[in-house]
Amino acid sequence: MADPLLEIRGLNKKFGDFQALKDINLELDKGLMIGLIGPNGCGKSTMMKCICKIHDMSSGSIHIDGEDISRKKPAEVSKLVATVPAESGPTFGLTVTDMVMLGRYPFVNRIWWENPEDEVVVRNALKTFGIYHLRKKQVSMLSSGERQRAMIAKAYVQEPKVMLVDEPTSHLDMKYKLQVMEYLKKMSHTDMTVIVAEHDISLMARYCDICVIMKKGEIQTIGDPKVVITEDLIRDVYEVDSRIGLDEDGEIYVLPKKYIDVEEY
Ligand SMILES: Nc1ncnc2c1ncn2[C@@H]1O[C@H](COP(=O)(O)OP(=O)(O)OP(=O)(O)O)[C@@H](O)[C@H]1O
């Protein structure tokens, strides 16, 4: 059997006395779309930041494609893993093309000067993500949906093996939510494993091959969303009563019904 693309062993992360991640163990194969689900503060972003080395681990190991990331320099890690953060941050008057081109940075040796190959990769990404017509526009002028697609294009041109996407649809309307998830799904079909943290569980259940459910810094369960996402699980993890159904296409939808006030018990 092939080795997993991402292998996390005994990952712990502490901020001072607070333990944000507790003994995380996870093996993921390539070519999958993975949904990271759990309540606010359960550790989703912290786990992503450990995978891309924004945070140092307190203990444990992370291997991507057999490579121990703790031994890699930042530029080498950037060739293995790319991140699409929840917020894009300041863009300093960059055009869409300029910003997406920044994703090629790990491939530049000493002097920053894009070559014709970089230009082809960027042009293709702009077309793939439907933003070619916006290429000369400043990123600060884009709508949320357009900016999100530009951020995904920037991560895509990094040609990573693992793509980490934090809350990709939080500012998007229904159409762009679906569109962004479609793009991410397509990327997972190019042998890239895409890990998405997102609060819309119905959307995650529909698009993800595997869901990783987290609670209080630990992995609660992992598996096929149609199997693992149940009313009992939602009650346990979110303290919310919900109804879970299947529409005529066999897709799961999750309807939150009532917040359970734990103080009442
Ligand atoms: N740099 C930090 N210093 C101290 N505590 C932190 C730091 N970063 C995160 N935490 C804490 O670690 C816990 C996990 O945070 P994290 O951002 O990973 O949660 P999350 O699951 O991504 O939440 P959300 O869904 O709200 O984005 C939280 O209690 C948070 O306050």
From TrEMBL:
<dbReference type="InterPro" id="IPR027417">
    <property type="entry name" value="P-loop_NTPase"/>
</dbReference>
<dbReference type="InterPro" id="IPR003439">
    <property type="entry name" value="ABC_transporter-like_ATP-bd"/>
</dbReference>
<dbReference type="GO" id="GO:0005524">
    <property type="term" value="F:ATP binding"/>
</dbReference>
<dbReference type="InterPro" id="IPR017871">
    <property type="entry name" value="ABC_transporter-like_CS"/>
</dbReference>
<keyword id="KW-0067">ATP-binding</keyword>
<dbReference type="GO" id="GO:0016887">
    <property type="term" value="F:ATP hydrolysis activity"/>
</dbReference>
<feature type="domain" description="ABC transporter">
    <location>
        <begin position="6"/>
        <end position="241"/>
    </location>
</feature>
<protein>
    <submittedName>
        <fullName>ABC transporter</fullName>
    </submittedName>
</protein>
<keyword id="KW-0813">Transport</keyword>
<keyword id="KW-1278">Translocase</keyword>
<dbReference type="Pfam" id="PF00005">
    <property type="entry name" value="ABC_tran"/>
</dbReference>
<keyword id="KW-0547">Nucleotide-binding</keyword>
<dbReference type="InterPro" id="IPR003593">
    <property type="entry name" value="AAA+_ATPase"/>
</dbReference>
